[in-house]
Batch of 2 targets.
Target 1
Amino acid sequence: MTSRLKHPAKGLIAPQNFAGGIALILIAAMALWLTRDLDPGTLSAMGSGMLPRILAWAVCLCGVVLFVSAFLKSGERLERGNLQGPLLIILAIFAFSATIRPLTIGPVTTPGLGLIVAVPLSIIIGGKASAEARIRELVVLSLGLTPCCMLVFCDMLNLPIPVFPQAVIEIFPDGWSAKSILRISALVMIAAAVAVFYTGRKSGLADSGESE
Amino acid sequence: METFLSNLSLGFSVALGLQNLGLAFLGCLVGTLIGVLPGVGPVATIAMLLPITFSLDPTGSLIMLAGIYYGAQYGGSTTAILVNIPGEATSVVTAIDGHEMAKKGRAGAALAVAALGSFFAGSVATLVIAALGAPLTRVALMFGATEYFSLMIMGLVLAVVLAGGSVLKAVAMILVGILLSTVGTDLETGDERMTFGLIFLSDGIDFAVLAMGIFGVAEIMRNLAQPESRDVVRKPIGRLLPNREELRQSWAPVLRGTLMGSILGILPGNGAVLAPFASYAMEKKLAKDPSRFGKGAIEGVAGPESANNAGAQTSFIPLLTLGIPGNAVMALMVGAMTIQGIIPGPQVMTGNPSLFWGMIASMWVGNLMLLVINLPMVGLWVRLLKVPYRLMFPAILAFCCIGIYSINSLPTDVMLIGLFGLVGYLLIKCGFEPAPLLLGFVLGKLMEENMRRALILSRGSLSTFITEPISAGLLIVSAVLLVAAIIPNVRKGRDEMFVE
């Protein structure tokens, strides 16, 4: 009774469990729908549908219990999360996967831009997910981290990851080796990172000087 | 005794090879480096670095992964002491007294006692594994499909019971994990299950993708929601060697912690998490003046740190002998082994002794290296601690993307980690823990296979699981544990233990 007084919202006293219960029921429903055509078979010769369907019903049962308990036992509230951060993170991941190499989704094919574009893109988009993001810092970070990734993954570990945009690779003269181009561009990027870092510091100092 | 020694010497001959020594060192170093960063625990670290080890041979990759694990664990303790942010559950207790010591300018002593205690515990745990490995494997070899199925049930039940939080939610997550493991082509019938007709799902969900999504990406999303408050110790770290008084106070807690950690770690549940809590509670009870605890008592660092390292190491026992992972890290190890073409279980020791004993010997080597890496380089770690999270997570994100892409060169894999990240984040928001899900996912395929086999052997009769004596015993133990965890009185005690 006391818990009901504390929570004027009638009945629902554990919003987190309420949401959790619904989530489980949805997962179970989706699994049951997806496995609707699979043959469950018999116990002595289990078909492909048996275990998934048993599991889905068990998940559903857990969900129902959780859902009902949300009205009977008080529990934690559902924190209101900011969805902007997670969405930017996902956007960053999608940007990486769309630019690392040509990707065909339906009628659209993205240009393969390679590591040298995909990494800075994901760092800057993803970095904006933090409330304290500063664009200059992110630029320095991406200029500094991208060459390191290029050197470690593509040069030292020799992983088959495209580094440069396909259009750019065709421009390079035949005589140049891919590795030396990679190393030179990595050095240029590191130099750029250092340059941006120091000019940023100076202008930052000048700004604070002016404000005083 | 003779076989014990010859096994160990075989192990050391493998672990001390130049390449494996280098990999162990690299693993420890990278593990510490990433484990020190606040907000990145061992599970996320291993998930992130998993792809790097794919190009190595099985022994080397497992040695490196084990090194990453200990390294991350050590790094977590450093962070707990210096910043008061426990990297993961096992160093929560260390943060209490360790950080108080650091505030009083005794950080050096706390770090040194933690490292020395861990080294001692690690050495003892290595011997325990070596001694128990062979007999337990012999037991496991007698198990058939029926017994295996029941054993896996018991492992999962123990994982639920020993972890904190809601039993119902953990069970639900395990079930969802097993459900996810059934996605893809069914090996027995060739039917496609729950693939939405997508080609890249017909091989099933990639283990690394799931792990990196729900541990790497979802962790970033969770951390972003919390405002950052870091309380890096400004006081000098102080002398790195404990003085005689501190050593005198520490040796008994280290011994007790090691014993407790070794025993709890073997349980196929999350023993490594439980051990430091239990050790802290015991030291507090045994102390002449319990009020010192929480204000910088060195026993409160020495005991739990030894316990967590011993537990972390002996939790390899169920994995290596029975093939049952006890916690999320061990689940990652199973994933790594499967990718290397090794099916975890008793046949690893009999069929591949140099891998088995090499890995065990490398644990001791790794612990020694950590002692060398950690103490002199503490200044470097302190500087790393000052890197703000707003710069760290974009880098982690980029590493995750590159790592996943490098496995199969599939952009769709990269997209999936984003998707699983979001799902994991939403589940965390609803109060679910991601670890049981991963455990269920890893065991799911094996469970289905063994269940099918057991039912074929018994001609479709479910009673085989209760008429076979070993299987019946395992199931009864699981049922008793599960019921006990739900009974209100026991529950209360269990929750209190985690609160303390």
Note: The radius of gyration of chain A is 27 Å.
Target 2
Amino acid sequence: MNHLARTSCLAVVVAASACGTWSNRDLEFANALPTASDLKSKLPVSSGTTSPLTGGIMRHHDGLNVGDPSDAYADAKSASTSFNGIIDFLLGTVDSVRSVPPTSRTTDSRTWGPFTDSNDPNARFQVVITAQEATATFAWSLQVSVGSGAFFDVVTGSFAATTGSVKKGQGSMVVHVKDFRDVLKVDDTFKQLDQIDVRYANDMSPTTVNMTFTFKAGASSGLSSIGYDYLENADHSGTMHFQLTSTDPDITVRDVRGGWLASGVGRAVNHVLQGTYAGAMITECWDQAFAVTYYSESWAGGVTNGQPTACATIDGF
Amino acid sequence: MSSSTPATALACLVALFAATGAHAQAVHRFALFVGNNEGGDGTQRLLYSRDDARRLHDVFERLGGVQNDDSVLMLDQSAEDVLIALGELERKSRDARTRGERTALIFYFSGHAKDGALRLGETKLPLESIKSRLSQAPADVRLAVFDSCRSGAATRTKGVRRAPAFEVETDATRAAKGIVILTSSAADEDSQESDLIGGSYFTYHLATGLLGSADQGGDGKVTLSEAYAYAYERTVASTASSAAGAQHPTFSFDLAGNGDLVLTDVVERKEGLRLPASAPEGTYFIIDLRGVVVAETVKGESERIIALPPGTYTLKRRLADRLRIGVVAVRGGALTLVDEGQFKNAKFSDDPVKGTGVSSLYARHWSLAASGNFQAVFDRPPSAGGYFPSAPLVGAQVTMHNFPGRNFAVAVDVNYGWANATAVAPLVGSVPYRYTLLSVGGALLYEFNQDGRFIPFGGVHLSFNAMSRDFTSSDFVLPAQNYTVLTPGAVLGLKVRVTKNVSVVAQARVHYLLYNVDETRNLGTADLGASIEWEFRD
């Protein structure tokens, strides 16, 4: 074997031996996938002296006195928990995919999977991320295949990264519930939905998350859509705003807006925008212990306890 | 020209020289001693050629009437240098003859001979050329001693391959006069070395004969014929049971009219050992402080004098069931009387002869080393977008020395490295991680100067690297990343022998590192480190 042949042989062996997942570029692709913690709302945490959060976003109480546990905080916290749970559900698969290296790579894409769905052995899923050439924008999708069928999009998203910052940027995703609710094993809640739209931005202060849940026509909940906006400042003060649209003729559109300081002090306004009770509004303020400091019902004969001056000043209110 | 078997050669020689007698002191002697362990391409390094030349040089200067100004010791010199030195001695001899002096020119060579030429490193000195040169040298007597051979596969012999040995010229029709040629072995034989005597058998026996052991006449003078007869007998006896077979020195001469030549006078200097006539007969071995046999003599009925330089020696007699061992000191200008009655009995296992141990350096043996290294990567640092960080390594290496051949070594090493580093991707920024490297490698090395204290070495190295990084950021959970690759490279180093078995080694390795995940990059690594090595050998 001459020198050239030996060298060539060695080069082949070296090249064949070189393999692995060592990739700086993978970091950028993985960075494009949202994590649940990116999108979750973070309300001030009760020290344990508040009332148990027994209500939901439809909860409604009348005539609170000063010093009572704040129902508005409880509603906000409950809403936060509900939305966070939905985020966990939506991104659970994405998070699990991110915990393993990509299955395949091209210059502009990474693919994880296909993997068998642990909840449905008949279904396979994969995540594909594609980088937009020469930009910091990535498009990604969670795709599912049932049986021998072709992969279709379950979730699609995009992310515009902010250069040089881990997990910082602006992103969006669309959960195409309408396309999979009848072919995949999903929770009953999802069977009421057509689509979920999410937009988020964490590359500036405040960080924001906006979600819109669009229900299918004739949903059993009577809701047609829920809008949810979450804003968090650098000092951990923030606001939460959600709007519920229902077929209830008395409260067709209800707007709930809550805000809090980093100390936990906050206020909320519950406002009926459409329906028989349109214009009705409840304003509620609470202290660091989440106890009511001011309560006011806007309609004639409504209850008012405490003074408006007891409410903290919060941006947006 | 006459020649040949010892019996006929000596008979002719004695008859030839009988008329003139022997007169060492009447001849102005010039001597050139050449020793070269290296024989160039196709030969293996010899161990004792330089020592052989030193030994003969010392004997002739102390006892052989060669003045320091008239003797040249050339170790590891080229053929050209040797011829220049020879020319200078020839000039001196010519001048002496012009002054009416009788002269003798002695040429001694120990080293490789192959394909009809003496080998001096990478240079060659054709035998015919040197013989012709000596035949025509302006000296009354020319004595050439060639301790070299062509050789077979045995590592303890000189030379490397079977080929027609250079012929000792015996052509009786040659015109040259006054030349004697001794060779260490016959035409088809190897010349052999021994650790126990620290030299070649032939030179050792020739030298020890010149110290007095060959003085059959008992007059304190060792003549050429006595020295050759002794060297022949003892060389044959010493090598008869060796793996390479018996070695038969040869003798050729053309000394008509010149008489026998006294080579050494062992009584004139009066320095050495005197075995009185009353001492038990038999073979006495004289051992220096290293445990190397520097001389031996067969004591007969008469007194025996062995000329030795000052020093402390152990004398050994070997009996059928035990050893007799005594220690004597030789002082300058005095003959030390040996009283065998003062010797002590010893078991064979307590034999003071240790040998030089040099050959064990060249024997196949293992070593184990523990090392510390620092590996630098030829790439941008990870903080600037590079792929792999530099890291300290700890490791171990097992080496088989003198495999697959003398001076070669095959090594297997394992190294583990670690570092905390930061990966930087343009869109992500800095992501800290913990880096680990496991490297398993093999090397084919060549070690120079194994019998020295400083042993340079170099070779090729191939390692299999398995690299991993675990990201430690709490807000960016990522799976560990791995990369494996074969990295061919080279190694250079220097081993410094601290004790017989322990060495400190400094070495540098460079490797080619192929990266091919995000892109194809030709990278490299450089490992600098030190290790402590333990060699498992006697």
Note: Chain A touches chain B at residues 10, 13-15, 17-28, 30-31, 35, 37, 98-101, 105, 136, 161, 163-167 (CB under 8 Å).
